[in-house]
Amino acid sequence: MTYDVAVIGYGPTGVTAANLLGAMGLRVVVVERDAEIYTRARAISTDEEVLRIWQRAGLAEQLKHDMLAERPLDFVDARGRPFLSAHPTPRGHGHPPQMFIYQPALERVLRDGADRYPNVEILVRHECLRLQQGPDGVELTALSTADDSVRRLRASYVIAADGGSSLTRAQLNVGYEGRTYEDRWVVIDTEMLKPWPDHDRLRFRCDPARPAVDCPTPLGHHRWEFPILPGDDEQHLTTDDAIYAMVSRYGISRDQIKILRATVYSHHVRFAARFRTGRVFLAGDAAHAMPPWIGQGMAAGVRDAANLCWKLAAVLRGELPETVLDSYEAERKPHVKEITKRAVFVGRIITERRLPVTRVRNTALRGLNRVPGFSNWLQDSHWIPVAHYSAGFQARPRTKASGHQIPQPWVTGPDGERVRLDDVLGGRWLLLYGGHPVPQPAWDRLGVPSLTVTPAGTEPAEGTVVDSEGVLLSWMAEHRAATLALRPDAYVYAAAPTGTQLPPPPAGFAPASHAPVPIAPIAL
Question: 179: pLDDT confidence band, cut at 50, 70 and 90?
């Protein structure tokens, strides 16, 4: 059988791709080496933009059910006194700005989501040993680790989400450049037996003697991370006695936690030399790796899948030429590099061990933290970059709105129901008018649908969406855009001020009329 897309790897990036492609009605095969979900909780947080992506597959509410939201974070000194505190602020994506997760539970929900689609086939205990590209597809040779049988698959395109040690990337002879930090860290997952004061706050313990990450995770779990310092016995540091000794510094006793597992890992900064080789695309850790300080490693892979999947669907349906796939790297690589740079910056604050420097750090940041708005400024300047593509698939000339993802407020749809905006947009090309519609002949001839945003308080009507919270019209005014041409991922392809025409649609654009695959709900 020939598939539209083969996905190699079934971690968060691969399972997100399976859900998005499945919802678009594509024929998908997933090849995963392991039989079960990886039990170690690697990622510990995610953000509102990622939940917005999972919302497209109808999974956001179920996923949030198993998350901790709205938790503050503190950078504390050796005595546990905060010198910098922050509370992540929303950026308009319609979900809490930061949520702590328990990764095995999250992946279970995502895999259950992919099981809804009869057009998605999952092959666990299979390892992709070989890829061979041709002019119209890719042949994959997969070995069953259960019985050593060999299966040959054929797909039009391949998403390789098989991790930092990606065999696919090696087969493609794509370099993976960067650095590995000298310090190795022991990561400890525990079950919380008895809560302690402020157990639900994230603390970066910036102790020059031994820095640490002290992090709440949902479903009764808690995470600690400690560096392995010069002179430490790495094997001993993963024993229960050593772990209890380290956490006892924070007043945690043996009867308060049950140690589930302790694993040692290194921090990496890596980027694949290219994200695309012919019909094969690298995504997630196969394309990039970053330190964990701002919790964006998994999120970056989910964003990769979201950026790539709608483009693959458009090419496979004949809606866009294949050249649009080159924009995947052009859009994703700069963004993930900027996130990585910020992760490294935050890591330097946490792990600094030179006593004179830490004294200056603590005093300066404690003083600045008292300045109104400083912590918010620091998050905006040095935390997660705002979603924005300065290059890639967008019309020329660029405008202030180009390459931005529009916010997602609660709105009133044409049927009078209160919904999140993306549920009205429907993951399709769409013209969005912020006032009286101006005819757009080039777009209208192609049958691109449109919606008019009306002010809060107006009556719902066919072809309109009521801006119930006053967010959309304000955003459009701020970006000097009366008309927007939105891509299926709600990023602005083109914008025009009042009374003017949009730039023309992309070359070769031929939107097809297709019915989406019904998204079956997952019971809470």
Answer: confident
Q: 175 near 273, Cβ under 8 Å?
A: yes
Q: Which of the pair, 382 or 475, is modelled with greater confidence? A: 475
Report d(CA 17, CA 156) in Å as an integer: 15
CA separation for the pair 201, 147 (Å, rounded)? 47
- Return the structure tokens found at 464: 């309109």
Residue among 275, 29, 327 at smallest CA distance from 169: 275
pTM: 0.95
Q: What number of other Cβ atoms are within 10 A of residue 96's Cβ?
A: 18
Quote the CA–CA distance of 278 and 133 in Å, as a whole number.
Answer: 8
Q: Residue 87 — very low, low, confident or very high, per pLDDT cuts 50/70/90? A: confident
How high does pLDDT run on average in the chain?
A: 93
Q: Which residues of 500-513 are buried (b: 16+ CB within 10 A; e: fewer)?
A: eebbebbeebebee
Long-range pairs for 166-169 at CB < 8 Å and ≥24 separation? Answer: 166/9, 166/282, 166/285, 166/286, 167/127, 167/128, 167/129, 168/8, 168/128, 168/131, 168/280, 168/282, 168/286, 169/272, 169/282, 169/286
Closest CA to 517 of 119, 31, 220: 119
Length of the chain in terms of residues written: 524
Cα gap 384→50, rounded to integer Å = 12
Is residue 414 exposed (0-12), middle (13-18) or buried (19+ Cβ within 10 Å)? middle
CA distance 31 to 488: 27
**pLDDT score recorded for residue 524:** 47
Closest CA to 504 of 399, 389, 396: 396
* CA separation for the pair 295, 298 (Å, rounded): 7
Structure tokens at 167: 């065999």
For each of the domains in the chain, give its residue range(s) and CATH number, in order of start. Answer: 2-69+96-177+271-332 (3.50.50.60), 410-496 (no CATH)
Helix extents (H) in 28-100:
48-56, 60-65
**Angular region, 270: left φ>0, alpha ψ -120 to 50, beta rest:** beta
pLDDT for residue 368: 86
- Any alpha helices (H) in 158-282, and if so which ranges? 167-171, 234-237, 240-247
Bridge partners of 306? none
Rounded distance between C-alpha atoms, residue 237 and residue 274, angstroms? 38
Give per-residue pLDDT as tens, 186-245.
999 999 999 999 899 999 999 999 999 999 999 999 999 999 999 999 999 999 999 999
Q: pLDDT tens, 379-423?
A: 655 567 777 899 999 999 999 999 999 999 999 999 999 999 999
